[in-house]
Design goal:
By secondary structure, this protein is mainly α. The chain is built from 4 helices and no strands. The relative contact order is 0.03.
């Protein structure tokens, strides 16, 4: 294992590369923003089409990450707008419910007032009828007394 690693380092240096290969997983290297790629091997590296495809994929992934990073504040703003709209809608719904409740209270109070006025009217009518009956009875009693008094005078 160690010999293969040393061989790769020597081959890289021979070809003018100062980098060293890291055989740890991307996760162990602390690289979380990139998916693992298929190993090309020596033949794959010499195959320019496969290499160019890999480079294009890397460029596209980088561009996608940049676009996502640039769009993140816009998505956050839109989410904030949606949250603000939801809060406003909830507040408006609560306000409408409160208004409806007050309107119902006013309606019930008006019905009670009308009922009381109706009952007062009926009570006044009953009192007037009772007063009329008492007056009629008093008039009859008076007429009877007069008739009695006249009958006694004769």
């Amino acid at each position: 294992m160690n010999g293969g690693r040393t061989c790769k380092i020597i081959t890289l240096k021979k070809n003018g590369h100062n980098e060293r290969g890291d055989h740890r997983s991307l996760k162990d290297q602390g690289i979380i923003d990139r998916e693992p790629e298929k190993h090309l091997s020596g033949a794959g590296v010499r195959n320019t089409t496969a290499k160019n495809n890999l480079l294009e994929l890397r460029a596209a992934n980088t561009e996608n990450q940049q676009a996502t990073a640039e769009a993140a504040p816009l998505f956050e703003q839109e989410e904030n707008k949606i949250n603000a709209r939801d809060l406003a809608t909830n507040a408006a719904d609560k306000f409408k419910a409160k208004l409806a409740e007050r309107a119902e209270i006013k309606y019930q109070a008006e019905r009670q007032r009308q009922r009381l006025n109706s009952e007062k009217y009926l009570a006044d009518q009953a009192k007037a009828a009772a007063d009329k009956l008492r007056q009629e009875q008093a008039d009859r009693d008076k007429a009877e007394r007069k008739a009695r008094d006249r009958g006694m005078e004769r």
